[in-house]
Amino acid sequence: MKDKVGILTSNFYDPSGERLIYGGAERYGYQLTKLLLDLDYEVEWWQVGSGWEQELMDGVMVKSIPVTKSPYETMPDLNYAFLERAADIDYAIYFITFLAYPQVKEKSISLSHGIYWDYPTFDNLINGQQGREEWLRRLKIALTGPEKIVSVDTAFIQWVKATWTGLDHKFNYIPNFVDLEKFNPQNRREVLKEKPIRIIYPRRLTTVRGINETIRVAEVMTSENKDLEFHIVGRGHKDGTEKELMKWASKHERIYYYWQSPERMAQLYKQMDIALIPTKAAEGTSLSCLEAMASGCVVISSHVGGLSDLIFNEYNGLLVKPTAKNLIEAISSLLADPKQARLLSQRGIEVAKTFSMKQWRKNWEAILKEVFN
Amino acid sequence: MKKNKLVAMMPVYNEADRYLEQTLEQLTRWVDEIVILDDASTDETANICQQYPKVHLFKNETRLFNQDETIVRSKLWELAVQRNPDWLLAIDADEIFSDRIIDEVGYYINQETYQAISFRLFDFWKSEEFYRVDGAWNPWHRPGSVFLARYHPEWDASWPDNVIHTGRWPLEYRNLKQIYHSDIRIKHFGWANAEDHHQKFLFYSQKDLEQYGKVQPHTKSVMALPNKVKLEEWFERKRSLKDGELVNER
Amino acid sequence: MKLGFFVPNLLSWSGDELVIGGLERYAWALIDLINDLGWEVEVHQNGNSNWEREVNGVKVIGHGVAQFSPEAVVEEANSCCDKILYGSILQSPMYYKQNSIVISHGVWWDSNNFKQQRKEKMIKLCGNVLNEVDLVISCDYNFLNVMRSIWPGTTDKIRVIPNFVDLEEFKPSKNPTTDSKIRILYPRRLDNCRGTDIFIELANQLISTVDNIEILMAIDRNNPDKNKEIKSFLAQDQVKNFNLQFSEMPAIYQQADIVIIPSKYSEGTSFSCLEAMASGKAIIATDVGGLTNLIIDGYNGILVPPRLKTINKAVNLLINNQEMRQVLGQRARETAKAFTIDRWRQYWAEYLKAIYLK
């Protein structure tokens, strides 16, 4: 009989079980599932929901547990129910770090997608400074349980080491992946050669991703430079935001707003010269950043979280503090020196090859072997 | 690479003086076949349809839609799937996609990740420039509607026991998990002509009574006082990607 | 304009000797830049008595009060300088002047040797620094990330300028050695935060398992005790010793096939790592502190957690793969081009002017 791996997450599907949420974390979940199946494990997902069950892919079920509370940004009820109900699993993966609070299966791994609390209003979610202590206490317990913790960036590991003593040995850094068969520079336009020059913001329309700075940059730069085109490509969390952006873009001649499926993004990047990743907080080794880089766009990224694991300033992109002024300066510097921009793009392509799916699978395989044997 | 086949299915009734030509003109540019069920039109509808080579026209001898919508929808489905589609488009004669669909439909129906594609539908109100945005009419706040879905020959196709608001898809297709929500907009002109409103209102009110025992709020809102109706002006958008080139959306 | 510059030990406590270390090299490079801006620099530092020296045309003032309290040195420096630049963050609370810059050389408390309470103290301390000064220049993004995840509101004050390397001084050898020996270099001070203990254990394992291995290991004059402790290790045939002197380092790097930077904690954008990169060497570094801002695993080196097992695995991979060593080395040299001193000076000049000419 095959060994069975249970993976606990909060939302693979939305809690009604009706819609698959298909963001970066979910893409990660798919690939991890595929790898486990290839290694001949049986896989079962557990998440929040009314008790429904869904088939994620052939033979892989997602089961749900009715949980409504998440005190101090943890989900102890979900954690407990998983432990009791997924009794037939041999190993567990806690897909989000805090889900390993308060208790874990004996052979388990947890996963960090990066530091997600590095913005001032996070305090509101955990009830201020007093709550912060309790939240930290819980997070530490969550880190103590699993045998290994895989982190998608080094920032999370470093924060843990700066915060607590005695957890170092658990960590393994496995950066995110990029599918090089899809995202590559084949048939791409040469960087900064043709007019109009195209700049893409390939992220969700949220404040932490830097949409407001991008809007400002787009307005200022398109009004000053007739050769520039801005493409804001991504969905909002609220429908109203999408409407506002559509209307806004329709009023500006060379500003575009739309979104595309992940499959189509690969085509799109080939038509773009510069990619903006102006994240202000809550960032790991961003898939968008890796994909833009692999496709040969010159990346201008912020210095937040895992991005400094991917971009070295003035080597394979530009790394700036994400203010509108800095972004404008960074874009202008590339426009002024296309030769340097092409060098950054070339090196980006080379660096991105290091983050191949193949390497990612290899790294994960080693951890799985170590813990699940 | 094999290109998937897309078949459109469309019920029609006396559409000659409405949007039929415009709809067919555009559909011809991006679907492989158009299966039309004419619900016993008494005008030029059938003749118009026959001018388009991609159209397969079928005709009811007597009008069925106003008696039992389910009969019409299920018959149309049976006719459409006989064309061996990989993907199906469920569309009405007064619904027009933004032209971007012509460039992008290939990506939607040749991908592996999603089972269906949903779109935002804009209900034009007493005009072809303004759409309605109050309450349940607001296209920005309601979930997208599925217009495109992958056909599964191995699935059953069953229909609800409704006489009205049957829905365009068999029940098996209504709880799909992997749905991609497109940002391409669809114009719906069913309410664009103010003169139709009263008659439509009466029709739906009566059907509501048959089916639910009372007139539904959405039906009532058709006759809402002008000060309750909120409108927004249609705005043009730019861009689409065609063979690697960016072109403008109309 | 006169700018006070607090550096704990630019000279030794007696003021008679130059101290050779990363911090001090950083300080001298900054002094050069400040002079080039046309400003006068006055260094304040720890002393075993009150003394004054002039070194390379720079006035250095030793404060004897340092023997009793390191903070008192800063207080004295604060009172004699109108404008002051703090060369590092002190490990105890003190008063930093407004309209000034503090340099962070990275997170220094990310170790198990720091008990929980002390970690919390260090974090609070950095929080205070961020409240008081106008700008913190950090040599790595790690410090910034850690601070942002604790004090997200105040990190606007942090700017990162990674350390630098001289590409002319450190460059790949034109005549690489052709014998069959594999030379493995540890180019650091003897200090456990730098992973000396891991390296010695690793070297011993390699000596007993791999033929033709040669270990290049520094003698650290600053740390005679440690040198004594590892005397028998150093005495082995396969271990070649050299003096840790800056002027000799370019040639030492050139001899090596593999350079190991096994830091365990308290690491920034290490000069040693940058020099090994500029020398075009295959590098194994740990995912500690600012090293992650220099090495991308599998691209221009190998990045592993600071454990014997992981480093051992990486070293064996490289020993058996000459082509991989070459590719990683070439890319390391290429990467080093983004860390030139010119670039470092350019960023620093901008911030110095922004704060002190205000």
Shape of chain C: globular
Query: Approximately how much helix is present in the residues of chain A?
Result: 25-40%
| SS elements, strand count of chain A | 14
Spatial order of the strands forming the largest sheet of chain C: 3-4-2-1-5-6-7-8
Tags for this model:
heterotrimer; B: 250 residues; alpha/beta; Spore Coat Polysaccharide Biosynthesis Protein SpsA, Chain A; eight-stranded mixed beta sheet; two-stranded antiparallel sheet; 12 strands; C: 358 residues; Rossmann fold; 2 domains; six-stranded parallel beta sheet; 12 helices; 18% strand
Provide structural commentary:
The complex is a heterotrimer of chains A (373), B (250) and C (358). Chain A has 2 domains: 4-176 and 357-371, Glycogen Phosphorylase B (Rossmann fold, 3-Layer(aba) Sandwich), CATH 3.40.50.2000; 197-353, 3-Layer(aba) Sandwich (Rossmann fold). In chain A, 40% of the residues lie in helices and 18% in strands. Chain A has helices spanning 24-38, 76-85, 122-125, 128-144, 154-163, 211-224, 239-251, 262-270, 287-294, 307-310, 324-336, 338-353, 357-371, and strands spanning 4-8, 42-48, 53-57, 60-65, 91-94, 108-112, 148-151, 171-173, 197-201, 228-233, 255-258, 274-277, 298-302, 318-320. In chain A, the strands form 2 sheets. Chain A has an 8-stranded mixed sheet with strand order 3-4-2-1-5-6-7-8. The radius of gyration of chain A is 21 Å and the shape is globular. The mean pLDDT of chain A is 94. Chain B has a domain at 6-124 and 138-191: Spore Coat Polysaccharide Biosynthesis Protein SpsA, Chain A (Alpha-Beta Complex), CATH 3.90.550.10. The longest helix of chain B is centred in the C-terminal third of the chain and has 16 residues, at 197-212. Chain B is of the alpha/beta class. In chain B, strand 2 (33-38), helix 2 and strand 3 (55-59) form a beta-alpha-beta unit. In chain B, the strands form 3 sheets. In chain B, strands 3-2-1-4-8-6-9-5 form an 8-stranded mixed sheet. Chain B has a two-stranded antiparallel sheet with strand order 7-10. Chain C is of the alpha/beta class and 358 residues long. Chain C has 2 domains: 2-164 and 341-356, Glycogen Phosphorylase B (Rossmann fold), CATH 3.40.50.2000; 182-339, Glycogen Phosphorylase B (Rossmann fold, 3-Layer(aba) Sandwich). An 8-stranded mixed sheet of chain C has the order 3-4-2-1-5-6-7-8, with helices on both faces. Chain C starts with a strand and ends with a helix. The chains are: A alpha/beta (373), B alpha/beta (250), C alpha/beta (358). Chains in contact: A-B, A-C.
